[in-house]
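Recall from the previous chapter that SMILES is a line notation for molecules. Here it describes coenzyme A.
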Amino acid sequence: MASRVRVGIAGTGSYVPERVVPNAEFESFLDTSDEWIVQRTGIRERRWVAEGENTSDLCVHAGKRALEAAGISAADLDLVIVGTLTPDYPLPSTACLVQDRIGATKAGAFDVQAACTGFLTAMNTAEAFIAAGRARRALVIGAEALSRFVDMSERGSCILFGDAAGAAVLMPHEDCGQGEVLRTTLGADGSGFEFIHISGGGSVHPATHDTVEAKQHYIRLKGRDVFRFAVKHMSQLIEEMLEGYDPDELGLIVPHQVNRRIIDAALDRVGMTDEKVMVNIQHYGNTSAATVPVALDEAVVQGRIEKGKLVVLVAFGAGLTWGASLIRW
Ligand SMILES: CC(C)(COP(=O)(O)OP(=O)(O)OC[C@H]1O[C@@H](n2cnc3c(N)ncnc32)[C@H](O)[C@@H]1OP(=O)(O)O)[C@@H](O)C(=O)NCCC(=O)NCCS
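With both inputs in hand, we obtain:
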């Protein structure tokens, strides 16, 4: 059997829509306040797509930036994988729209649906293809237009979500010399499928006037249950990724930006402070599959990741799903 190809992250990119939605905007139509939202979530503002702007548009911007950072052209790609729960259409995949628009003429393209774990699932899939010698260049993207799927009359959920896209180019480590993926893990527990759920529009409740009337096309969540699950899994995944490594080797943890309090509680459990943690939830809210790649790209741009140090990517979400990766930058 051929030996495993070591895989590296050759470049990252991200994009957020122009429209900034501060917490105060919700005060005009909901019983909520900037103070409540900041205290309970850490979110101060989020970005929402403009009319006519869709998930694939965000993907194209972020994807092109990642290709530029990696120094390759779209025509060199063997794979385009998009993690999203808010595709442009139920059919076909958003990845195919992106493949066409960026000119990835040689690439296979598909979406993965693992909600907030979408980027890490896409990245793990691409890593496995490259490691097995079945592909050499892959563009992986996490992207969402969540503002199109939230019930603006439900204060417990609509304030949480934002729109964004983040991307990374993966290739053999020998070709890029950076960002080696050392460890990955994915997990799921479908018994918790109703914790975060869009019940209408699938084969159980195909879209009808009634499902729309009952607002079944919007995201519903059991915030408190998710909170407990999230703290437990975030802390366990960080420990699992770093097991056997000297803590001094850690450069940065890039966690799913779900709620500032969840991140803080998870860090507390593993006995860490936030100096080695990337947090940007104050600007973007929870952008599901996009949080990890956007935060990773911002960390790269801000020079927060020292070459040779370890980076932990960690996410969890609807499914329930979870995933993590350990990278040597
Ligand atoms: C949603 C979340 C912010 C709520 O925070 P919380 O501290 O758990 O708050 P609770 O749900 O216990 O609600 C406390 C009170 O605030 C109220 N409340 C909820 N949203 C509010 C808002 N936007 N403004 C003001 N009050 C609000 C609730 O109605 C509740 O009132 P009650 O005590 O009179 O019933 C938090 O649970 C969370 O972040 N959960 C995970 C989010 C998630 O699922 N993300 C998607 C998956 S990754």
